[in-house]
Amino acid sequence: MTHIDVAIAGGGIVGSSTAYYLRKLGFTGSIAIFEQDTSYKHSCTALSWGGIRQQFSTPENIRLSQFGLRLIRDLKREFGPEAEINFREQGYLVLATEKSVAVLEENQRLQTSMGADTIIYRGQELAQKFPWINFEGIAAGSFGPRNEGFFDPYSLMSLVRKAALQRDVNLVPQAVTGVDNTGTITSITLANGERVTVGALVNAAGAGAGALAAMAGVDLPVSPAKRYVYVIDCPDATEAHRKGPLTFDVTGEYFRPEGRNFIWGFTPTDEEEPAIKDWEMDESWFENKVWPGLAHRVPVFETVKQVGGWVGHYDYNWFDHNGIIGRHPEIANFYLGNGFSGHGIQQGPATGNAIAELICFGGYREIDLTRMGYERLQRREPLFEKNIF
Q1: Which regions of 243-290 does DSSP assign to beta strands (E)?
Q2: How many contiguous H segments (helices) and E segments (strands) does the chain have?
Q3: Which pLDDT score is estimated for 276?
Q4: Pair 13, 156: CB distance under 8 Å
Q5: Regarding the domain with residue range 2-52+153-221+319-379, which homologous superfamily does it belong to in the CATH classification?
Q6: N or C, fewer C-beta in 10 Å, the chain?
Q7: pLDDT at residue 305 greater than cutoff 90
Q8: What is the mean pLDDT of the chain?
Q9: pLDDT tens digits along 53-69
């Protein structure tokens, strides 16, 4: 029977980063990533918007994304002179009604205290900064002009994965279909029926993380949340539109430039949450909700053509929407990097590094993520973001 010292279930950004940083931190044991979708057709990572920001209300989330930003800044030094992910530092703009301005201001104080450059614009200032946006019903906007923007998520994941594989990490094109837990994880079973004994198991299974945890007898409130992304051609858009930030409206719609096009999406309410977690596009959302809302907010979007789109699944944490990171408190060799609810691509590198630290050193060194551990679920103490999106 094959033995693997660290088995990683899932080869997206979290799994690939865990393997990569294990090697960077000096781990010499055997490492294998088990990934059934080696085309990454349905990967949370590959289908991401590719955003990165520091506009969070939780210090840990800010630190996680700052770690990811440093990796992006050091991309060529880390992965070689040809490394490229097309990072566009065009910022994030988060809009707010009058009742939410105090939350924006509170968040800004935390963000700037941690090194972010968040600026809050109100009234005329906002209209002057972004004259192509209709700010009816908007009291303020929180803007990160530096160290925020978007990039090609698949390229980042591919660079990290390739670097891990070059460091004697094995990629196994199999799903994990069974986990043997006798107080510690002793072995896993693969889709082809093979059993593999393990020294440790890392749950980096994305939207399938809850199902994988259940194999080990662990209740993890992470499962797929279906999201729609629309690719839009807007022939009347100017360079100002195309160089604009990734913008989140108070209505739940959001958009950003993508080459000569734009990509649009929205966050559904609990009542609107799609019940069927398949990969079929529902065009009615575009016609009835997203287009009317964004055409109101950005008048030039009145005349557009949908030229593409895709369906993705968030690895959604239904408990508090934040990542669940760390060693399971009762299964000493079971590690979690799950439930990012849309933040995984920007927080995946730091999460992988954090899990690698736990495996190598027994504790955190770069970022203390104790509050993001599974224990908060056991205590029923959610760690919510303010103004989450």
Answers
A1: 246-248, 253-258, 261-266
A2: 12, 18
A3: 77
A4: yes
A5: FAD/NAD(P)-binding domain (3.50.50.60)
A6: N
A7: yes
A8: 96
A9: 999 999 999 999 999 99
Helices 344-361 and 13-24: crossing angle in degrees, nearest 10, is 40
CA distances for 199 relative to 29, 144, 187, 335, 359, angstroms? 10, 43, 8, 11, 10
Domain ranges in the chain are 2-52+153-221+319-379, 88-149+224-317
> What tokens were used for 157?
């994941």
**Kind of pairing, strands 246-248 and 92-96?**
parallel
Q: Residue ranges of the alpha helices (H) in 80-152?
A: 101-113, 123-129
CB 182 within 8 A of CB 198: no
Q: Which residue carries 């973001």 as its tokens?
A: 385
Backbone angles phi, psi at 247, to 5 degrees: -115, 130
At the top level of CATH, the class of 88-149+224-317 is alpha beta
Nearest to 208 by CA among 332, 329, 339, 327: 339
Strands 149-150 and 119-122, how do they pair? unpaired
Q: Which residues make beta-bridge pairs with 144?
A: 92
Task: Give the Cβ contact number of residue 168 at 10 Å.
Answer: 11
- Residue 22 has a CB neighbour count (10 Å cut-off) of 27
In DSSP terms, 141 is beta-bridged to 95, 121
Tens digit of pLDDT for each residue in 169-216? 999 999 999 999 999 999 999 999 999 999 999 999 999 999 999 999
Which position has the token pair 């989450």?
Answer: 388
How is the chain split among helix, strand and coil, in percent rounded to 5?
Answer: 35, 25, 40
Tokens coding 110: 């935390």
| Mean pLDDT score, 24-40 | 96
> Per mean pLDDT, which range of 4-13, 220-229, 271-280, 335-344 is the poorest?
271-280
Residue with tokens 């649009």: 264
CA distances from 286 to 17, 233, 266, 289, 329 (A): 35, 14, 10, 6, 43
What DSSP line would sit under 24-36, residue for residue? HTT--S-EEEE-S
Q: Do domains 2-52+153-221+319-379 and 88-149+224-317 have the same CATH topology?
A: no
